[in-house]
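Researcher: For the record, we're logging two predictions in this thread. I'll number them. Prediction 1 follows.
Model: Prediction 1, sequence and structure:
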Amino acid sequence: MNTVRDRTPISRRQFLHLSAVTVTGALAAACGGAAAPAEVTAPEAAPAATTAPAAPAAQMPSGTPTSFQEAPMLAERVAAGQLPPVAERLPAEPKVVVPLQEIGAYGGTIHTVSDSAGRIGWDSAVFTSEREYLLQLDSTCLGITPNLATSWEMSDDAKTMTIHLRQGVKFSDGEPWTADDIIFYWEDVVLNDDLTPVKPHSWSIGGELMTVEKVDDYTVVFHFPGPIPMAPALLARGYFNGNNLPKHYLTEYHPKYADQTKLDEAAKEAGFEFWYQLFQKKAFPDERDEAYHPTLNAFLVMEKGVDSITDERNPYYFKVDPAGNQLPYIDRVVGTAVANREVGTAKIMGGEVDFGGWLSTTENLPLYQENAEAGQYRVLLWKSVWASEAGFGANQTYEKDTALRDIFRDVRFRRALSLGMDRDEINNVLYFGLATPRQLTVLPTSRYFEQEFADSYIQQDVDEANRLLDEMGLDQRDAQGFRLRPDGARLTWQIDYPEAGERPREIVAQLVLEQWRENLGIEATLKGYTGELMETRVRANDVQMNLGDCDNAMDIMFALTPYWSVPMNWGWEWCWETLWGLWYQTNGEQGEEPPQQMKDLLAMWEEMKATPDEERRTQLGKEILKQQAENLWTIGTVGMAPVPVIVATNLGNVPEEQLWGWDCYFGQVFDSMTWYLKQPLLDRQQA
């Protein structure tokens, strides 16, 4: 069921009181009402290992292993004749993953919590390796390395990419994964108009799609209609799903391979109207509804509960450690869905969580630290990849109120909103001064970064903000002191956001709205939606202004998907340019033709993606960000806040410092298949 929650304005004093009540209430639920500490302390160093490591990093075996071991739970199945020996389950050349600190030990269950409506646990996904792509990001999230592919070559003109697949990889049901699965995805899914009515822009130029050629069972060639030098990045970021769709499993649901009449009957029995709806359900199952699907990931779904999912190790997983131990080390991952972030916080402090980053927030850091010993966890501070913890996008294509749309389109209005914020107050109240007041732009580590982009219109200047609004003709106010539109109506609008999310956007927005009311005489309201309903509203162009956490701020993601500064997107949560994005996505067949300024941004981005010249790409990226800094298509608040990451006291090989966020798949690139539980297991890890 879709749900909606209204957010009514609160005063500054009420806001601060509410913040204290929220965290204290969560603490009381978990720990009997103890108060939060008055100050934030640095996380403690990792405790010593409870058992001596089998092979410290300095003594790690080198080279490719020639013999292999497996988890006891799998050895039992081999002995019972239920599985072939481990050497037969692994590929001819397994991928060797070097643990961060030491060779781990097998066993134990990891517990996570999440409020994500679409999946029970992004924190679970850190372990279940949902991002096993042909190529993958390295641990810096800036480089690209082989994964399911062992190597690749790009032609000098960037029009051809040859990919060599890892030989002998098997799906979790023991069936081989080969080039046939790649071809099936491209020819029978992407090129099928029922399954993919809108073709992927990433693999096309001027509306012409690439072609995919099978050379042999373990070699495929991508032929591009023009240069796509960023193809390796696209593969590492999952813009090609050929590695995830098992042909042997899905042909049963495709009319090219199955009887159409029987397929239609099966679709109707499953509650669908068309065959392709059933296919989509089988190809891209929601874990809440589909308990089994052949996978290449480290874990596969084995059991579903009303609010939990248990994933168990994949006996055919293609990775090993340097000693020849098949990964992962951990036996099971249990992800539990909770009603909201506060309940998740209570579970963390109550000692029910072994790893957590999705629900943990900086404002709750003192509470996590206060309860760490009792909860048998450590608190690490990883670095956020969010350029802005909360960003505002005024929909400049909103059709249902053209007077409001015209106000949104005036750059003076967007600058006034930015100048009317007190980012220092946001930082100090919500982030203990640990975040950075900044405008929406890339992170300082990016090749595209300029400090002037981050500093644009971030210093509070209430007088200048009010002058800009008066100059626009918004100089009249009602009896309550709120500004009026030129048509005499009070200037007000609704800000929509998806309630399940990585960052606590709502609490930032509440403070910003209070600042706008006090400083500018402007009234706006917040309303949260489920992710599904938010998507529906965005696509229907019903959103006046959206609130989002702004990632895609590192080099690869900014270059591939600059949602916040280029009108290239249609859907999900970002909608400052909804109809312009739809126009771009459909090659001008739908949506609204954008003004020349927007077309120029799109042209710069298209050239940026196509040029093999790194210097030119950097120049184009900076010009796009300069336009964002001047025009504030997206208005930022504060960014780069540290993220408290909850780690069980006996969870080994976890990096003490790392990055956290979508640009790094929330930790999925940090070799979590090598993380392990040290003996003795905690009570919660026994099952």
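Researcher: Logged. Prediction 2.
Model: Prediction 2, sequence and structure:
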Amino acid sequence: MARIRLRRVAEQMKQVIARVVTQELKDPRCGFITITRVEVAPDLKTAPVDFSVLGSGSQKRNARTALKSARGYIQNRVAQQTVLRHTPVISFKLDESAERDVQLVQKINQIVESDRRAHTARAIRSKVAAGSIPPEVIHEISEAAASKEFAESLAGLLMQLIRENTTTGPHPAGAAGSERACLQIIEAELKRTWAGEIETELLPMGREIQNDMASAQPNSQDPDEAPGSSEQAHAQRVNLLAVLRSVKSEDAQPSNDEEIKPLRLVFNTHIDTAPPHVPPSRRGDIIRGRGACDAKGQAAMIVGAFQLLKHIRDQLGVRLLRDICAQFVVGAETGGSGSLSLALRDPFAFDGVVVCEPTGLRVCIASPGTVGYKAELTAPPGRAAELAADVVLALEEEGRSIRVESDHPLVPRSAAYTNHDILGPFGTAPATAPRLVEVEISSAELGLADIRHAAERGVGKYCALYGDKARESDPDTGRPAIAEHFTVERSAENSFLLRIRGKAGHAAAPALCDSAVTKAAYVVREFSELRASGKSLDVALAGHCGDEIILEGAQGFLPTHKLGQISERVDSAAERGVHTLCARAALEEGSAAVKMSFDSRQRAAFARDPDSALAVYMTETCKRAGPDLPTPAASYEAPSDASVFAELFPERDIVVFGPGRLESAHPPGETNSLKDIARGASILALLALESAGFGS
């Protein structure tokens, strides 16, 4: 009877406490608390209360603190609402068992899902190995893709696209017009190929993306651009959606295995490009010009795939069983996000998306994330260059720490890159390593030799960490990646000009670039330390006046980290850079400041299962397309719009794939191979047949 009474008292107290906690306590720290058990002591003097919290470790700690501070109130409410001579003294204890149960169920579900995917993957590999696509179809696609006529068609289309300047340039409104013209070229080619059998639509950039962290206003290269003009240009921008409708066939038998479901696919790429614009040229198989690789060459590949599908329809009567969608978007390089705009509209229900980027025809199922930052620096008089250098070096140090912490089976540590692409008047575009920074030194005490020696010390420290590109060969030219790290000349009496040089390129390929901003930071640090030691000198960025300066860049990260974590660390690192200058120069705290903002180029890192249906179809299709193609699933080195789809559609399959090398994407000599574009088109066409199913 005593045990029954104890259970009755415990249950009554549990109901009262749960009601008080959920309905009466107004402390926001309580969060999602559940009272799981009350255990009353046999002498009725004490009653430990177990509770669980849905949330992170900090949320659990906050809930425990809130309950502890409200214990007296809860105790009084229990006394008022229970019929007990002496109310047991309550205490609170976090119950981890409920969370462990949830985690156990999640692990079981993950194992079941993994087994299901593995079974599907084996079935797909068996299906492809058994020759699900007739040899004559494969032969027809391969022959057509390798033909001179197809190469000339791709070359004509790609050069026409490159001629359109889809960098933002000085006026964003002009970019919107060029983007539209470029998309209309693609639309006209798709309509010409499929003559009334393909649906196309130019869709405006949606207002719903304006405040999304994956988006941004179009970048302007004109510092005097009138406020609001970027927003107006954003409203004028459009994306192209094309849907090739399937034709059902009674003879269509995509698979006898119920585990293999036909896939509805999206092929996605962007047509905006990083500045400066480079007009097209051709030398044999190689197309040169801005966008040849990133990403107008990808657009040409997608159009080519649609042309090959039309070719086999006409020649062999082969028809798709599922619709295929193509998205040609703007915003990956110039601000905004057409992919996000179309994904939020979701006008096309899909099972998997192939985001086309220059992967070297590798199938990539993961990619790093990126946190783009803008640092508005305010320095004491004459200290702007020194402050910028200290902030850059603090961000570099934090980036190295992030790389050390990063360990992922698919994404290499090098993808946790740190890049500073714009410093004051230097730098051309986001995600591009700058190749020149000019520094002015004024001193009546130092001579030309002193200036050179200080610059050499700074460059030596830089090269010790990042390598010496003057001793490395450029893979495209065979010559040294840079001819010299810097030059110095006397510009006037007691004044010297340092030109610090680097190698431009895509920031996500840091091993192949040589950032002039980072190198300049090490050089400026040397002069800052000379100044702190008592030498009389001034250091400034050439062409920059005043005590305010803008620094922009990005920090890459792996799926081991979250976007919010990286933003906080970048912010803290920039503050440390400010404190470094104040300590070295004996300045008052607050005399220098940094205001950080993170309103552009935010991409989460993502990774997908190598056994996902789309990944398996892609790798098996690449094997069939040629033994020289890299087939294991890998990681794309740079952030891409794949993360937009990964965040919005966590259950859908995503791969990144396309011709060209990332290191060829942003330098002035951007190139791509027609042969690789044609092979990529044949792979996409075969992928569509394998995954979507076909009939006659």
